[in-house]
Design a protein that fits this description.
two-stranded antiparallel ribbon; 2 helices; two-stranded antiparallel sheet
């Protein structure tokens, strides 16, 4: 009789664990921005998402500061 009771408890625990595992939703993908394209910063080399970059001609920059610092080292300044 004790064995039957132990088997019943083990079965109940297994059943509850199964139900809990099924109710968990699988991880969903985080919505990405408009595009997943990455651009390399022309100043420091860090890769940034396209919609977060600062652009000048064919160059991309990870921040406004790097865009400004880039012009300190280049003769090609914007007008």
């Amino acid at each position: 009789m004790k064995i039957l009771l132990i088997l019943l408890v083990v079965w109940a625990i297994a059943f509850i664990v199964r139900i809990l595992m099924r109710s968990q939703k699988p991880a969903t993908q985080i919505p990405s921005s408009k595009t997943d394209k990455l651009h390399k910063c022309a100043f420091c080399g860090v890769h940034c998402p396209e919609d977060e970059t600062f652009r000048y001609k064919d160059n991309a920059f990870c921040s406004k500061e790097h865009l400004d610092q880039y012009f300190q080292y280049k003769d090609d300044k914007p007008e």
